[in-house]
């Protein structure tokens, strides 16, 4: 049964999700990748406000291609999340509740996901055109000079995603390959 | 002696940058279609079908297949009887990339300095490989390379004694370590031989070979087939979420090397293996 999950995600929803659950995400999510994370980290170091309310928020690791006239956004698939691992535990401790990306996360991120009751979702890597159709609104809210790496506030509807790391610390990438791994011995 | 205006090279490169980012070559589309039929995991099959749907949307609605429209890698083969006129070749190549990425709504993903990291805003410069060949033609191949997969690529300087076993182990290590990060299903380009940088170049060139094509050298063809099977046995699957299709193709290119060396390069690519070519 594929669930509809509203973003920002509630504590109740986060706790109820399990690694392997296929969901459709709707609501508000903020894009941020390498450069934006570096700036946000520096902002926290300087005691400054972050560009959006971090508590309860969702982040999509994504830098879009430019939108043609009349379109909301260009191609918009996930980027490799592990590049943001360095910055993530701190953001999770500050209240970041959901992350959408692709690829493995570090143990430090997994530990923070568990202690902060957050969820890490994977979107299908390489499906940028298809995923762009699930974005109904996009506006740059910070770091405009970063171009594709600016922070964008997105409104998404029925965006397909899979729970990779749940609040219990289960990791789909660890579990999934075992079933189809053929021993060479 | 034949003259070629470099502006013609710019025009062709512009067109190919845009085309390569909206349409996969027939061999890649076919490989993806075939894989969806073979995949045993229901979730894996669903993902492969979504990837095919994605290709359809990309072509029809003119949205790039992947938002990472890549760093432009351009291979040029210039016939030695050609005289290039109207400007400097490399400027013309970059002009083609600039126009393709700007007018074609492609992402600007290049920074001027690897540490200072200011975006160049036009996806230049390209990575350019130029060879002088016999004849009077100019052959151009544009292969935009995304960095999700590029970041998972590896070079191993093996000892000759490690032999074919060592090569196999190196490729499987690179693929295992890549896992979900390089967006499986993969196309794996392998270079064996040469020196440090030649080896890597062999691997990148291997990616531009047709999926399903094989080396003419019997043991290399066998290696390509064997590696594809072994990689699929890893169970990584589409999106790294488990399955029987982890790679669509493994292409191996070889070159003479030093008596003390066995360089092996593994250039990872995802299923969005983009290349467009033309001959002037």
Largest sheet of chain A: 5 strands, mixed, barrel
What fraction strand of chain B?
A: 15-25%
What share of the residues of chain B lie within helices?
Answer: 40-55%
Counting DSSP H or I runs of 4 or more residues, the number of helices of chain A is 6
The backbone outline of chain B, from C-alpha atoms, is globular
Q: Number of domains in the coordinates of chain B?
A: 2
Strand content of chain A: 25-35%
Record field, number of beta strands of chain A? 7
SS-derived structural category of chain A: alpha/beta
Question: End-to-end span of chain A in angstroms?
Answer: 37 Å
Tell me the span between the first and last alpha carbons of chain B.
14 Å
Q: Given the structure, what is the number of helices of chain B?
A: 8
Q: Give the oligomeric state of the chains in this entry, treating copies of one chain as homo and distinct chains as hetero.
A: heterodimer
Major sheet of chain A: order of its strands?
2-3-4-5-7
Query: What are the segments of chain A in which pLDDT stays under 50 over at least 5 consecutive residues?
Result: none
Quick one: CATH superfamily of chain A? Answer: Fe-S hydro-lyase, tartrate dehydratase beta-type, catalytic domain
Main interface by residue count: A-B, 46 and 49 residues
Low-confidence stretches of chain B: none
How many domain modules of chain A? 1
Helix content of chain A: 25-40%
């Amino acid at each position: 049964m594929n669930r509809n999950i509203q973003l920002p995600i509630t504590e109740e929803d986060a706790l109820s999700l399990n690694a392997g659950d296929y969901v459709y995400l709707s609501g508000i999510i903020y894009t941020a990748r390498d450069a934006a994370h570096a700036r946000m980290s520096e902002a926290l170091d300087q005691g400054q406000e972050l560009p959006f309310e971090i508590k309860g928020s969702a982040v999509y690791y994504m830098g879009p291609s430019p939108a043609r006239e009349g379109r909301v956004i260009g191609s918009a698939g996930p980027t490799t999340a592990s590049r943001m691992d360095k910055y993530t535990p701190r953001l999770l401790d500050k209240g970041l509740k959901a992350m959408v990306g692709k690829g493995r996360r570090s143990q430090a991120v997994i530990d923070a996901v568990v202690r902060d009751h957050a969820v890490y979702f994977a979107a299908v890597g390489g499906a940028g055109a298809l995923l762009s159709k699930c974005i109904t609104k996009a506006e740059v809210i910070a770091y405009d000079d970063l171009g594709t790496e600016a922070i964008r506030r997105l409104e998404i509807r029925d965006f397909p995603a899979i729970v990779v790391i749940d609040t219990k610390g289960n990791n789909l990438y660890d579990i999934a390959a075992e079933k189809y791994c053929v021993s060479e011995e | 002696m034949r003259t070629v205006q470099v502006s013609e090279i710019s025009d062709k490169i512009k067109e190919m940058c845009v085309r390569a980012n909206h349409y996969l070559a027939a061999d890649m589309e076919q490989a993806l279609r075939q894989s969806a039929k073979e995949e045993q995991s229901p979730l894996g099959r669903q993902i492969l079908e979504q990837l095919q749907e994605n290709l359809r949307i990309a072509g029809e609605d003119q949205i790039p297949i992947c938002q990472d429209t890549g760093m432009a890698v351009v291979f040029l083969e210039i016939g030695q009887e050609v005289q290039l006129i109207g400007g400097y070749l490399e400027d013309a190549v970059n002009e083609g990339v600039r126009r393709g990425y700007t007018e074609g709504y492609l992402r600007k993903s290049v920074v001027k300095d690897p540490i200072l990291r200011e975006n160049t805003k036009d996806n230049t410069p390209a990575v350019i490989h130029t060879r002088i060949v016999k004849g009077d033609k100019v052959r151009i191949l544009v292969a935009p390379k995304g960095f999700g997969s590029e970041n998972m690529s590896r070079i191993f300087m093996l000892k000759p004694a490690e032999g074919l076993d060592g090569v196999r182990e190196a490729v499987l290590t690179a693929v295992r370590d890549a896992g979900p990060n390089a967006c499986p299903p993969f196309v794996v380009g392998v270079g064996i031989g040469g020196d440090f940088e030649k080896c890597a170049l062999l691997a990148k060139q291997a990616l531009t070979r047709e999926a399903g094509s094989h080396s003419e050298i019997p043991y290399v063809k066998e290696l390509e087939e064997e590696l594809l099977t072994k990689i699929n046995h890893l169970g990584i699957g589409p999106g790294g979420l488990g399955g029987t299709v982890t790679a669509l193709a493994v292409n191996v290119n070889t070159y003479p090397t030093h008596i003390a060396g066995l360089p092996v390069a593994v250039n990872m690519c995802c299923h969005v293996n983009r290349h467009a070519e033309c001959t002037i």
